[in-house]
């Protein structure tokens, strides 16, 4: 069965050239549920069996919405956007592959390729352009969440106790905030903000910080019987540690 079948006028000629490949299946072994009478007529014109070709509409979207959906929408608008328009930004991106996020809207020809759609709306007082830039800037938040997960194991469940797991998550967030403030206080480069990029400082990842300050070449020695960790005599490392020490002294 071919459900929600659709064929554009431009595609009819292409399919007619391939009819010998699928004539038997098209005329005898398949049921076609077309979206419209025009689509059904195009399928019949290339050899589809009339008794097996029906017009059922788009079964992906032709459904009866809940009776209270309109009232719920009006309630949401009254609470979040009374007396003003609610903007919805839709972005259409052409991709070269079929993915789980590919959708085909009725506004466009289905034979134009594969597309991914993004839609965003908000209760904030934003114009359509600023709404879209606000949504694009969410990548900064996703980077922060990724750092919490990959660098500080925020997504792990270390125990079988709710209170202990909650404490773990609080400690991870506290560690992240301390690392962020540490970089800002010790000379993180500032950059010009934009509508999309609102983070002011260029921050290193937790992995980079580990290699910069902790994963250094060193050797355990015992001069005069006292245990010491002796770092390699590296000028760049000495300058980096000195800069951090002076910045922390000023911050204190």
Mean pLDDT: 80
So what's the oligomer here?
single chain
Extended strand count: 7
- Cα shape: elongated
C-alpha-based Rg, rounded: 31 Å
Summarize the structure.
With 252 residues, the protein is of the alpha/beta class.
Describe what this molecule looks like in 3D:
With 252 residues, the chain is of the alpha/beta class. The protein has nine helices and seven strands; from the N terminus they run βααβαβαββααααββα. It is elongated and about 100 Å long.
List keywords for this structure.
elongated; alpha/beta; two-stranded antiparallel ribbon; 9 helices; 7 strands; 3-stranded parallel β-sheet; 252 residues
SSE diagram, text form:
Blueprint: E1 2-5, H1 9-17, H2 19-29, E2 32-34, H3 37-45, E3 53-55, H4 69-80, E4 88-95, E5 114-121, H5 128-136, H6 138-150, H7 162-185, H8 206-214, E6 218-221, E7 228-231, H9 235-251
Parallel strand pairs: 1-2, 2-3
Antiparallel strand pairs: 4-5, 6-7
